[in-house]
Amino acid sequence: MPQVNDTMTLMEVTFDSIKKTVLKGTDPMIMSNMTTLMETLRSHCDIPLVQTFAKLTLESAWNLPSSYNASNISHGPSLPFFIIPILTIIFIIVGCVGLVGNLLTVVVICKTASLHSHTNYFLASLAISDLLLIVIGVSFDLINIWRNGNPPPINGYCAFTSTCISLFTFASILTIVSLTAERFQAICYPFNHRALFDGRKVMWLIYLIWIIATIPSVYIGLMFKRVLPDFCGFKHPMEHFGTCDLVTGPDAPLPYSFELTMIITFVLPLIFIIYCYIRILATLNEMSATTTVHTPVGTSNSDSIQFPRLTATSSQNQSFPLTIHTRNFQPPRSQQAHKMVIKMLVTVTSVFFICYLPHHIQRLIVQYNKTVCDSSQFCLFLYPITGLLQYVSAALNPIFYNLMSVRFRTAFNKFIKDVLSKSDKEYSTLARL
Protein backbone atom coordinates (compact mmCIF):
# COMPACT_ATOMS: atom_id res chain seq x y z
CA MET A 1 0.00 0.00 0.00
CA PRO A 2 2.82 2.49 -0.75
CA GLN A 3 0.50 4.81 -2.71
CA VAL A 4 -1.94 5.05 0.22
CA ASN A 5 0.90 5.77 2.67
CA ASP A 6 2.32 8.50 0.42
CA THR A 7 -1.12 10.11 0.05
CA MET A 8 -1.76 9.98 3.81
CA THR A 9 1.63 11.56 4.50
CA LEU A 10 0.92 14.38 2.04
CA MET A 11 -2.50 14.85 3.64
CA GLU A 12 -0.98 15.23 7.09
CA VAL A 13 1.60 17.74 5.88
CA THR A 14 -1.04 19.73 3.98
CA PHE A 15 -3.46 19.64 6.90
CA ASP A 16 -0.77 20.93 9.29
CA SER A 17 -0.24 23.89 6.96
CA ILE A 18 -4.01 24.51 6.79
CA LYS A 19 -4.30 24.49 10.61
CA LYS A 20 -1.57 27.13 10.85
CA THR A 21 -3.13 29.39 8.20
CA VAL A 22 -6.74 28.83 7.15
CA LEU A 23 -7.99 27.24 10.40
CA LYS A 24 -5.96 29.34 12.80
CA GLY A 25 -8.07 29.96 15.91
CA THR A 26 -10.75 27.40 14.91
CA ASP A 27 -12.42 25.25 17.57
CA PRO A 28 -10.43 21.96 17.92
CA MET A 29 -13.73 20.02 18.06
CA ILE A 30 -14.46 21.05 14.45
CA MET A 31 -11.04 19.85 13.29
CA SER A 32 -11.44 16.49 15.03
CA ASN A 33 -14.54 15.58 12.98
CA MET A 34 -13.94 15.00 9.24
CA THR A 35 -17.49 15.96 8.22
CA THR A 36 -17.53 19.30 10.05
CA LEU A 37 -13.96 19.93 8.90
CA MET A 38 -14.97 19.55 5.24
CA GLU A 39 -17.98 21.83 5.76
CA THR A 40 -15.70 24.46 7.25
CA LEU A 41 -13.05 24.17 4.53
CA ARG A 42 -15.65 24.30 1.74
CA SER A 43 -15.93 28.07 2.16
CA HIS A 44 -12.17 28.36 1.56
CA CYS A 45 -11.97 26.37 -1.68
CA ASP A 46 -10.48 29.34 -3.51
CA ILE A 47 -7.23 28.78 -1.55
CA PRO A 48 -4.77 26.46 -3.36
CA LEU A 49 -3.82 24.70 -0.12
CA VAL A 50 -7.45 23.72 0.53
CA GLN A 51 -7.86 22.58 -3.09
CA THR A 52 -4.84 20.28 -2.70
CA PHE A 53 -6.19 18.88 0.58
CA ALA A 54 -9.61 18.22 -1.03
CA LYS A 55 -7.97 16.25 -3.85
CA LEU A 56 -5.79 14.24 -1.44
CA THR A 57 -8.83 13.45 0.73
CA LEU A 58 -10.66 12.04 -2.30
CA GLU A 59 -7.65 10.00 -3.42
CA SER A 60 -7.04 8.57 0.04
CA ALA A 61 -10.68 7.48 0.36
CA TRP A 62 -10.65 5.65 -2.98
CA ASN A 63 -7.25 4.06 -2.43
CA LEU A 64 -8.49 2.30 0.70
CA PRO A 65 -9.80 -1.30 0.46
CA SER A 66 -12.86 -1.74 -1.77
CA SER A 67 -15.11 -2.72 1.13
CA TYR A 68 -14.52 0.68 2.70
CA ASN A 69 -15.10 2.48 -0.61
CA ALA A 70 -18.39 0.78 -1.34
CA SER A 71 -19.83 1.43 2.09
CA ASN A 72 -18.55 4.92 2.84
CA ILE A 73 -18.53 6.81 -0.45
CA SER A 74 -21.82 7.67 -2.06
CA HIS A 75 -22.40 8.15 -5.78
CA GLY A 76 -24.95 10.82 -4.94
CA PRO A 77 -28.75 10.80 -5.19
CA SER A 78 -30.55 8.55 -7.64
CA LEU A 79 -33.77 8.95 -9.60
CA PRO A 80 -36.94 7.48 -8.04
CA PHE A 81 -37.39 3.99 -9.45
CA PHE A 82 -40.89 4.65 -10.86
CA ILE A 83 -39.48 7.54 -12.95
CA ILE A 84 -36.91 5.35 -14.71
CA PRO A 85 -39.39 3.24 -16.81
CA ILE A 86 -41.32 6.40 -17.77
CA LEU A 87 -38.16 8.15 -18.96
CA THR A 88 -37.10 4.97 -20.78
CA ILE A 89 -40.37 4.78 -22.73
CA ILE A 90 -40.17 8.48 -23.68
CA PHE A 91 -36.54 8.16 -24.79
CA ILE A 92 -37.33 5.07 -26.90
CA ILE A 93 -40.35 6.73 -28.58
CA VAL A 94 -38.41 9.92 -29.40
CA GLY A 95 -35.42 7.84 -30.53
CA CYS A 96 -37.49 5.64 -32.87
CA VAL A 97 -39.32 8.63 -34.40
CA GLY A 98 -36.05 10.48 -34.96
CA LEU A 99 -34.26 7.40 -36.27
CA VAL A 100 -36.92 6.55 -38.87
CA GLY A 101 -37.61 10.18 -39.84
CA ASN A 102 -33.99 11.20 -40.39
CA LEU A 103 -33.12 7.95 -42.17
CA LEU A 104 -36.04 8.50 -44.57
CA THR A 105 -34.94 12.12 -45.08
CA VAL A 106 -31.46 11.07 -46.20
CA VAL A 107 -32.76 8.28 -48.46
CA VAL A 108 -35.48 10.42 -50.06
CA ILE A 109 -33.09 13.31 -50.81
CA CYS A 110 -30.57 10.89 -52.35
CA LYS A 111 -33.16 9.11 -54.51
CA THR A 112 -35.23 12.12 -55.63
CA ALA A 113 -33.61 14.17 -58.40
CA SER A 114 -35.93 17.15 -57.85
CA LEU A 115 -34.58 17.47 -54.28
CA HIS A 116 -30.94 17.75 -55.37
CA SER A 117 -30.42 21.38 -54.39
CA HIS A 118 -27.93 23.25 -52.20
CA THR A 119 -30.45 23.61 -49.38
CA ASN A 120 -31.37 19.93 -49.42
CA TYR A 121 -27.71 18.83 -49.41
CA PHE A 122 -27.30 20.74 -46.15
CA LEU A 123 -30.55 19.24 -44.82
CA ALA A 124 -29.27 15.74 -45.67
CA SER A 125 -26.08 16.45 -43.71
CA LEU A 126 -28.18 17.75 -40.81
CA ALA A 127 -30.31 14.59 -40.94
CA ILE A 128 -27.17 12.40 -40.80
CA SER A 129 -25.83 14.24 -37.74
CA ASP A 130 -29.26 14.07 -36.06
CA LEU A 131 -29.54 10.37 -36.87
CA LEU A 132 -26.12 9.55 -35.39
CA LEU A 133 -26.76 11.77 -32.36
CA ILE A 134 -29.93 9.82 -31.60
CA VAL A 135 -28.21 6.43 -32.01
CA ILE A 136 -25.29 7.26 -29.69
CA GLY A 137 -26.96 9.80 -27.39
CA VAL A 138 -30.16 7.91 -26.57
CA SER A 139 -28.16 4.73 -25.88
CA PHE A 140 -25.77 6.65 -23.62
CA ASP A 141 -28.57 8.32 -21.66
CA LEU A 142 -30.53 5.08 -21.18
CA ILE A 143 -27.41 3.35 -19.83
CA ASN A 144 -26.79 6.39 -17.61
CA ILE A 145 -30.35 6.30 -16.24
CA TRP A 146 -30.46 2.58 -15.50
CA ARG A 147 -26.94 2.43 -14.00
CA ASN A 148 -27.41 5.58 -11.90
CA GLY A 149 -24.64 7.40 -13.75
CA ASN A 150 -22.13 4.58 -13.33
CA PRO A 151 -20.68 3.82 -16.81
CA PRO A 152 -20.04 0.22 -17.92
CA PRO A 153 -16.50 -1.12 -17.35
CA ILE A 154 -15.34 -0.52 -20.94
CA ASN A 155 -12.01 1.18 -21.63
CA GLY A 156 -12.50 4.55 -23.31
CA TYR A 157 -16.29 4.44 -22.95
CA CYS A 158 -16.58 8.01 -21.61
CA ALA A 159 -14.14 9.44 -24.15
CA PHE A 160 -15.79 7.68 -27.11
CA THR A 161 -19.40 8.61 -26.29
CA SER A 162 -18.50 12.20 -25.40
CA THR A 163 -16.50 12.63 -28.61
CA CYS A 164 -19.36 11.28 -30.73
CA ILE A 165 -22.07 13.36 -29.05
CA SER A 166 -19.93 16.53 -29.32
CA LEU A 167 -19.09 15.77 -32.97
CA PHE A 168 -22.71 15.29 -34.05
CA THR A 169 -23.86 18.34 -32.09
CA PHE A 170 -21.15 20.60 -33.53
CA ALA A 171 -21.80 19.25 -37.04
CA SER A 172 -25.50 20.14 -36.67
CA ILE A 173 -24.68 23.66 -35.51
CA LEU A 174 -22.16 24.27 -38.30
CA THR A 175 -24.58 22.86 -40.88
CA ILE A 176 -27.35 25.21 -39.74
CA VAL A 177 -24.94 28.16 -39.81
CA SER A 178 -23.72 27.24 -43.33
CA LEU A 179 -27.27 26.72 -44.57
CA THR A 180 -28.25 30.13 -43.22
CA ALA A 181 -25.22 31.73 -44.89
CA GLU A 182 -26.09 30.05 -48.21
CA ARG A 183 -29.69 31.34 -48.12
CA PHE A 184 -28.46 34.78 -47.03
CA GLN A 185 -26.10 34.92 -50.02
CA ALA A 186 -28.74 33.60 -52.44
CA ILE A 187 -31.40 36.15 -51.47
CA CYS A 188 -29.45 39.24 -50.41
CA TYR A 189 -26.55 38.94 -52.89
CA PRO A 190 -27.89 36.76 -55.74
CA PHE A 191 -25.28 37.84 -58.33
CA ASN A 192 -22.41 36.47 -56.21
CA HIS A 193 -24.26 33.35 -55.12
CA ARG A 194 -23.35 31.05 -58.01
CA ALA A 195 -19.65 31.90 -57.70
CA LEU A 196 -19.60 31.03 -54.00
CA PHE A 197 -22.12 28.17 -53.85
CA ASP A 198 -22.24 25.67 -56.68
CA GLY A 199 -23.00 21.97 -56.22
CA ARG A 200 -19.37 20.91 -55.96
CA LYS A 201 -18.43 23.67 -53.49
CA VAL A 202 -21.43 22.87 -51.30
CA MET A 203 -20.34 19.22 -51.05
CA TRP A 204 -16.79 20.24 -50.15
CA LEU A 205 -18.19 22.66 -47.56
CA ILE A 206 -20.19 19.84 -45.97
CA TYR A 207 -17.05 17.67 -45.79
CA LEU A 208 -15.18 20.61 -44.25
CA ILE A 209 -17.95 21.07 -41.66
CA TRP A 210 -17.47 17.50 -40.41
CA ILE A 211 -13.68 17.88 -40.31
CA ILE A 212 -13.89 21.15 -38.35
CA ALA A 213 -16.45 19.64 -35.95
CA THR A 214 -14.13 16.69 -35.29
CA ILE A 215 -11.21 18.76 -33.94
CA PRO A 216 -12.83 20.26 -30.79
CA SER A 217 -14.89 17.09 -30.30
CA VAL A 218 -11.79 14.92 -29.93
CA TYR A 219 -10.29 17.40 -27.45
CA ILE A 220 -13.49 17.53 -25.38
CA GLY A 221 -13.86 13.75 -25.56
CA LEU A 222 -10.36 13.21 -24.19
CA MET A 223 -11.23 15.48 -21.26
CA PHE A 224 -14.24 13.30 -20.38
CA LYS A 225 -13.32 10.52 -17.97
CA ARG A 226 -14.75 8.65 -15.01
CA VAL A 227 -14.60 11.34 -12.35
CA LEU A 228 -15.54 11.90 -8.73
CA PRO A 229 -15.98 15.29 -7.03
CA ASP A 230 -13.97 16.30 -3.98
CA PHE A 231 -15.55 18.35 -1.20
CA CYS A 232 -14.73 21.55 -3.15
CA GLY A 233 -16.73 20.32 -6.14
CA PHE A 234 -13.74 19.82 -8.45
CA LYS A 235 -13.94 16.60 -10.47
CA HIS A 236 -10.89 14.34 -10.65
CA PRO A 237 -10.36 11.24 -12.82
CA MET A 238 -10.74 7.87 -11.11
CA GLU A 239 -9.81 4.63 -12.82
CA HIS A 240 -12.66 2.40 -11.65
CA PHE A 241 -15.19 4.72 -9.99
CA GLY A 242 -17.34 7.74 -10.75
CA THR A 243 -19.46 9.07 -13.59
CA CYS A 244 -18.62 10.27 -17.11
CA ASP A 245 -17.97 13.98 -16.90
CA LEU A 246 -15.50 16.72 -17.71
CA VAL A 247 -12.36 16.83 -15.57
CA THR A 248 -12.40 20.12 -13.65
CA GLY A 249 -10.06 21.69 -11.17
CA PRO A 250 -7.55 24.49 -10.66
CA ASP A 251 -4.94 22.58 -12.69
CA ALA A 252 -7.28 21.79 -15.65
CA PRO A 253 -5.80 22.72 -19.09
CA LEU A 254 -8.70 25.07 -19.86
CA PRO A 255 -10.41 26.23 -16.65
CA TYR A 256 -13.20 27.96 -18.62
CA SER A 257 -13.56 25.33 -21.36
CA PHE A 258 -17.33 25.01 -20.94
CA GLU A 259 -17.96 28.76 -21.08
CA LEU A 260 -15.73 29.04 -24.15
CA THR A 261 -17.51 26.13 -25.85
CA MET A 262 -20.93 27.64 -25.12
CA ILE A 263 -19.96 31.02 -26.60
CA ILE A 264 -18.41 29.52 -29.76
CA THR A 265 -21.02 26.82 -30.44
CA PHE A 266 -24.20 28.50 -29.19
CA VAL A 267 -24.09 32.26 -28.56
CA LEU A 268 -22.10 33.38 -31.64
CA PRO A 269 -23.98 31.11 -34.11
CA LEU A 270 -27.29 32.32 -32.67
CA ILE A 271 -26.32 35.99 -33.14
CA PHE A 272 -25.12 35.33 -36.70
CA ILE A 273 -28.29 33.42 -37.65
CA ILE A 274 -30.61 36.06 -36.19
CA TYR A 275 -28.76 38.78 -38.15
CA CYS A 276 -28.96 36.77 -41.41
CA TYR A 277 -32.67 36.03 -41.13
CA ILE A 278 -33.50 39.64 -40.29
CA ARG A 279 -31.65 40.71 -43.45
CA ILE A 280 -33.29 37.94 -45.51
CA LEU A 281 -36.82 38.83 -44.41
CA ALA A 282 -36.17 42.53 -45.00
CA THR A 283 -34.88 41.79 -48.52
CA LEU A 284 -37.88 39.58 -49.37
CA ASN A 285 -40.32 42.22 -48.11
CA GLU A 286 -38.53 44.88 -50.15
CA MET A 287 -38.66 42.69 -53.26
CA SER A 288 -42.40 42.13 -52.79
CA ALA A 289 -43.06 45.83 -52.29
CA THR A 290 -41.15 46.98 -55.38
CA THR A 291 -42.14 44.25 -57.84
CA THR A 292 -44.11 45.53 -60.85
CA VAL A 293 -45.86 43.64 -63.63
CA HIS A 294 -45.49 44.66 -67.28
CA THR A 295 -48.68 43.59 -69.08
CA PRO A 296 -49.22 44.04 -72.87
CA VAL A 297 -52.41 45.95 -73.69
CA GLY A 298 -55.18 43.78 -75.03
CA THR A 299 -54.22 40.64 -73.12
CA SER A 300 -56.49 38.98 -70.63
CA ASN A 301 -54.36 40.36 -67.77
CA SER A 302 -54.72 44.02 -68.76
CA ASP A 303 -57.59 44.56 -66.32
CA SER A 304 -59.96 45.28 -69.30
CA ILE A 305 -58.58 48.78 -69.76
CA GLN A 306 -59.93 50.16 -73.04
CA PHE A 307 -57.71 52.21 -75.34
CA PRO A 308 -58.73 53.89 -78.63
CA ARG A 309 -58.02 51.88 -81.76
CA LEU A 310 -54.82 52.69 -83.52
CA THR A 311 -54.92 53.50 -87.23
CA ALA A 312 -53.15 51.32 -89.74
CA THR A 313 -50.42 53.94 -90.18
CA SER A 314 -49.82 54.36 -86.50
CA SER A 315 -49.80 50.62 -85.93
CA GLN A 316 -47.22 50.18 -88.68
CA ASN A 317 -44.98 52.83 -87.13
CA GLN A 318 -45.32 51.26 -83.66
CA SER A 319 -42.06 49.49 -82.89
CA PHE A 320 -43.04 47.97 -79.53
CA PRO A 321 -46.31 46.72 -78.10
CA LEU A 322 -48.03 49.11 -75.74
CA THR A 323 -47.77 47.95 -72.11
CA ILE A 324 -49.07 49.09 -68.76
CA HIS A 325 -47.13 48.92 -65.49
CA THR A 326 -49.06 47.83 -62.43
CA ARG A 327 -48.08 47.10 -58.84
CA ASN A 328 -47.88 43.38 -58.15
CA PHE A 329 -49.86 42.67 -55.00
CA GLN A 330 -49.14 38.95 -55.14
CA PRO A 331 -45.41 38.03 -55.04
CA PRO A 332 -44.06 35.97 -57.95
CA ARG A 333 -43.65 32.24 -57.46
CA SER A 334 -39.89 32.53 -56.93
CA GLN A 335 -40.43 34.91 -54.01
CA GLN A 336 -43.16 32.70 -52.56
CA ALA A 337 -40.83 29.69 -52.82
CA HIS A 338 -38.04 31.64 -51.09
CA LYS A 339 -40.40 32.63 -48.29
CA MET A 340 -41.60 29.06 -47.86
CA VAL A 341 -38.05 27.72 -47.60
CA ILE A 342 -37.04 30.48 -45.18
CA LYS A 343 -40.12 29.81 -43.05
CA MET A 344 -39.17 26.13 -42.79
CA LEU A 345 -35.52 26.90 -42.01
CA VAL A 346 -36.45 29.50 -39.38
CA THR A 347 -38.70 26.91 -37.72
CA VAL A 348 -35.98 24.24 -37.73
CA THR A 349 -33.36 26.69 -36.43
CA SER A 350 -35.64 28.12 -33.73
CA VAL A 351 -36.57 24.67 -32.43
CA PHE A 352 -32.89 23.65 -32.44
CA PHE A 353 -31.75 26.59 -30.31
CA ILE A 354 -34.80 26.49 -28.01
CA CYS A 355 -34.21 22.78 -27.33
CA TYR A 356 -30.47 23.28 -26.76
CA LEU A 357 -30.84 26.32 -24.48
CA PRO A 358 -31.89 24.25 -21.39
CA HIS A 359 -28.78 22.06 -21.88
CA HIS A 360 -26.50 25.08 -21.61
CA ILE A 361 -28.46 26.48 -18.66
CA GLN A 362 -28.17 23.09 -16.92
CA ARG A 363 -24.40 23.03 -17.50
CA LEU A 364 -24.10 26.57 -16.09
CA ILE A 365 -26.08 25.59 -12.99
CA VAL A 366 -23.87 22.54 -12.43
CA GLN A 367 -20.69 24.50 -13.18
CA TYR A 368 -21.36 27.24 -10.63
CA ASN A 369 -23.19 25.17 -8.00
CA LYS A 370 -20.86 22.17 -7.85
CA THR A 371 -21.32 21.16 -4.23
CA VAL A 372 -25.09 21.82 -4.21
CA CYS A 373 -25.77 19.84 -7.40
CA ASP A 374 -23.83 16.79 -6.21
CA SER A 375 -26.61 16.11 -3.70
CA SER A 376 -29.59 17.76 -5.43
CA GLN A 377 -32.59 15.92 -6.90
CA PHE A 378 -33.32 19.00 -9.02
CA CYS A 379 -29.94 18.78 -10.79
CA LEU A 380 -30.41 15.03 -11.13
CA PHE A 381 -33.69 15.53 -13.06
CA LEU A 382 -32.21 18.30 -15.21
CA TYR A 383 -29.70 16.08 -17.00
CA PRO A 384 -32.09 13.54 -18.65
CA ILE A 385 -34.69 16.22 -19.42
CA THR A 386 -32.22 18.54 -21.18
CA GLY A 387 -30.76 15.56 -23.05
CA LEU A 388 -34.24 14.49 -24.13
CA LEU A 389 -34.94 17.96 -25.55
CA GLN A 390 -31.91 17.65 -27.85
CA TYR A 391 -33.29 14.40 -29.27
CA VAL A 392 -36.76 15.96 -29.61
CA SER A 393 -35.20 18.68 -31.79
CA ALA A 394 -33.54 16.02 -33.97
CA ALA A 395 -36.78 14.02 -34.24
CA LEU A 396 -38.94 17.02 -35.17
CA ASN A 397 -36.93 18.13 -38.22
CA PRO A 398 -38.29 15.48 -40.67
CA ILE A 399 -41.82 16.28 -39.48
CA PHE A 400 -41.27 19.97 -40.29
CA TYR A 401 -39.96 19.09 -43.76
CA ASN A 402 -43.14 17.14 -44.51
CA LEU A 403 -45.52 19.71 -43.06
CA MET A 404 -43.94 22.79 -44.64
CA SER A 405 -42.54 21.58 -47.98
CA VAL A 406 -44.81 20.26 -50.73
CA ARG A 407 -41.82 18.79 -52.60
CA PHE A 408 -40.63 16.91 -49.55
CA ARG A 409 -44.11 15.65 -48.76
CA THR A 410 -44.64 14.47 -52.35
CA ALA A 411 -41.22 12.77 -52.44
CA PHE A 412 -41.82 11.08 -49.07
CA ASN A 413 -45.22 9.78 -50.15
CA LYS A 414 -43.87 8.54 -53.49
CA PHE A 415 -40.96 6.75 -51.82
CA ILE A 416 -43.20 5.02 -49.27
CA LYS A 417 -45.69 4.00 -51.99
CA ASP A 418 -42.85 2.60 -54.11
CA VAL A 419 -41.51 0.59 -51.17
CA LEU A 420 -44.97 -0.76 -50.30
CA SER A 421 -45.82 -1.64 -53.91
CA LYS A 422 -42.45 -3.38 -54.31
CA SER A 423 -43.02 -5.42 -51.16
CA ASP A 424 -46.54 -6.33 -52.37
CA LYS A 425 -45.14 -7.56 -55.70
CA GLU A 426 -42.49 -9.63 -53.95
CA TYR A 427 -45.12 -11.11 -51.62
CA SER A 428 -47.36 -11.96 -54.61
CA THR A 429 -44.45 -13.64 -56.40
CA LEU A 430 -43.62 -15.72 -53.34
CA ALA A 431 -47.30 -16.63 -52.89
CA ARG A 432 -47.46 -18.00 -56.45
CA LEU A 433 -44.41 -20.15 -55.79
Automatic annotation (TrEMBL):
Signal peptide feature range: none
InterPro entries per the UniProt record, alphabetical: GPCR_Rhodpsn, GPCR_Rhodpsn_7TM
Protein family per UniProt: Belongs to the G-protein coupled receptor 1 family.
Protein name: G-protein coupled receptors family 1 profile domain-containing protein
UniProt keywords, alphabetically: G-protein coupled receptor, Membrane, Receptor, Transducer, Transmembrane, Transmembrane helix
Pfam family, one: 7tm_1
GO CC entries: plasma membrane
